[in-house]
């Protein structure tokens, strides 16, 4: 259908400002087409309501396309199948068995441990001169939190940090090379569970060894998402000093602010693509069975139909309906932990460094992730 706007992922203007590119498409209609060299075309939903409807519609299914295509040794293959590659009853069972370990209550109980990690990382920053908060703080923090959660011994953590850095940089060949190490490491941890989480997953929860290892390897992947987001959030807060001032003076706004930041500068631009299980009429566009469909988190989160005055950053806004953690059955399992981690990290930074300023903002042109190349700051 010719009326469907196309978004060229190779266009530098799209990479430089995906919010404008997707937003322009959104105002032409709820469906657009993503195109680009070396990239199979994909349908994308750009409006909030339509994106949510797709994410809860069983005709759009996640499957073996997410991790299975990775080139890894045969013994790793069974562990690649995470809950993100399953649907229906199989997926519901995995969610049921793991959800208690990721409940909001658990995340709150875990808060003091996150606070200790944040304090340690901030204490370790060089005393003077510019510092890159991306590599020195935002990247190591999520992996430290996952290590605490899963019970990785102190001595093993340096190599897990290397995995984390590889994961944060994307899914290229370096990533595939890191996968066997992550999976073998996850198997070792599961064989000798030394954390509440692993004792729960290997004990009462009733997961198989394969499912538990897949869960740990997925936590390493998915649990890195805060890294790029934290850097975006610091940059955003410093670019809006009036909003940072609100949070310094009235810290009760932090939970709102975390959601508003997710809405405003979330790092995941698109959901994982789903495939249609049958031919679907997608708001007037015929999508053939098996074609990929994604949702533009960035466009939906700035949809004026869902958020008043969406281009205003307001930490007091009730922005909880954002799609930064997706929606429906695959809604981020770690959302409660992510929220606590982000709040603890950002509030500590604002409290500790009242004169913080960003020296340079340079983004990596990455069609899937809105991210900074570095976050050099002066305190
Ligand atoms: C700011 C931080 C985070 C963001 C923005 C984020 C975002 C997301 C999104 C968008 C999805 C759904 C993907 C899709 O269906 O297309 C997802 C799923 C998931 N996330 Fe997160 N995430 C974050 C942090 C975390 C953390 C810290 C953990 C672990 C502790 C985690 C664990 C997971 C898991 C296990 C899934 C798969 C859920 C399923 O398939 O049912 N995430 N996340």
UniProtKB/TrEMBL annotation:
<protein>
    <submittedName>
        <fullName>Cytochrome P450</fullName>
    </submittedName>
</protein>
<dbReference type="Pfam" id="PF00067">
    <property type="entry name" value="p450"/>
</dbReference>
<dbReference type="InterPro" id="IPR001128">
    <property type="entry name" value="Cyt_P450"/>
</dbReference>
<comment type="similarity">
    <text>Belongs to the cytochrome P450 family.</text>
</comment>
<dbReference type="InterPro" id="IPR002397">
    <property type="entry name" value="Cyt_P450_B"/>
</dbReference>
<dbReference type="InterPro" id="IPR036396">
    <property type="entry name" value="Cyt_P450_sf"/>
</dbReference>
